[in-house]
């Protein structure tokens, strides 16, 4: 992991006052995005590189908008799990220039989106972590994207035992959406840096 981190940090340029560098940590579910992001935050802190992290999964929509919609399950996950256009307008279009964003945060227990103000540092690396980051609606907003390549068998082994029992959900919802992303958006080709995990 340390070698990955040093290689990644080497791609972050020095920032002048008011500058932001938008760094994407992309990869399929359980590929290690969150682990890498936490380690990267720690290393940047040690190197006095100001950073701020945004997790895309904090901004999913309510269940009624992504389950039992009449569409195929994989399409619900890929196209409806997030408000793709809304995040483009209220996050990606603004994250490089605005000091304050108003974003919907998903509250799982209440199954509600709650609007919150997010204040961004004036000069920093903005790390955006999540799945499907290189979809065409979002890719152009990043200065640099890392993709974590990790095979499906290893990723599945990292799931909770109870989660693994619901294999139909993977077969009908998650895996076809991942296959669509890989074929349609070709994240391995578009990424600036690839980390092969496992």
Automatic annotation (TrEMBL):
Transmembrane segments: none annotated. GO terms for molecular function: ATP binding; uridine kinase activity. Pfam families: PRK. Gene3D superfamilies: P-loop containing nucleotide triphosphate hydrolases. It comes from the Bacteria. Its EC number is 2.7.1.48. Keywords: Kinase, Transferase. InterPro entries: P-loop_NTPase, PRK/URK. Residues 22-158 form the Phosphoribulokinase/uridine kinase domain. This is Uridine kinase.
């Amino acid at each position: 992991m340390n070698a990955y981190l040093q290689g990644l940090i080497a791609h972050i340029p020095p920032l002048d006052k008011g500058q932001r560098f938008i760094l994407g940590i992309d990869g399929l579910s359980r590929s290690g995005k969150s682990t890498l992001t936490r380690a990267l935050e720690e290393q940047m802190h040690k190197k006095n590189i100001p950073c701020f992290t945004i997790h895309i999964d904090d901004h999913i929509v309510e269940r009624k908008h992504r389950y039992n919609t009449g569409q195929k399950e994989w399409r619900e996950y890929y196209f409806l799990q997030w408000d793709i256009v809304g995040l483009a307008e209220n996050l990606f279009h603004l994250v490089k220039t605005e000091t304050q964003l108003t974003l919907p945060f998903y509250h799982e227990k209440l199954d509600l989106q709650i609007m919150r103000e997010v204040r961004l540092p004036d000069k920093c690396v903005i790390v955006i972590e999540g799945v499907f980051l290189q979809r065409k609606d979002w890719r152009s907003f990043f200065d640099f994207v890392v993709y974590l390549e990790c095979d499906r068998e290893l990723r599945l082994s990292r799931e909770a035992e109870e989660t693994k029992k619901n294999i139909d959900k993977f077969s009908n919802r998650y895996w076809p959406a991942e296959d669509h992303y890989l074929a349609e958006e070709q994240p391995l080709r578009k990424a600036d840096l690839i980390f092969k995990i496992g």
